[in-house]
Design goal:
mainly alpha, 4 helices, 79 residues
Length: 79
């Protein structure tokens, strides 16, 4: 893929009357997402993990949560 190509293949935005509903809709949207092809990578699995985190669900998180998830995935990949 050319470095001049926008790597953003899709953007998913959901809406619901409340946070729990929006999280449920986003989980469903991610579960229904299908991307395939040589060299295609997606963050859907990462986002699913974030949405499942109790701190995120309870809105008791900050941006450090993303760093924790990135570090955990790096440790898993190294193992």
């Amino acid at each position: 893929m050319s470095p001049y190509y926008d790597s953003l293949l899709a953007k998913v935005i959901v809406w619901a009357p409340d946070r729990d509903g929006a999280i449920a809709r986003m989980r469903r949207a991610l579960a229904e997402t299908r991307l395939a092809g040589p060299g295609v990578a997606a963050t859907a699995g990462f986002l699913h993990d974030v949405l499942a985190d109790p701190r995120f669900v309870a809105a008791e998180h900050d941006t450090a949560l993303l760093g924790e998830f990135v570090a955990a995935r790096a440790r898993q990949a190294a193992a």
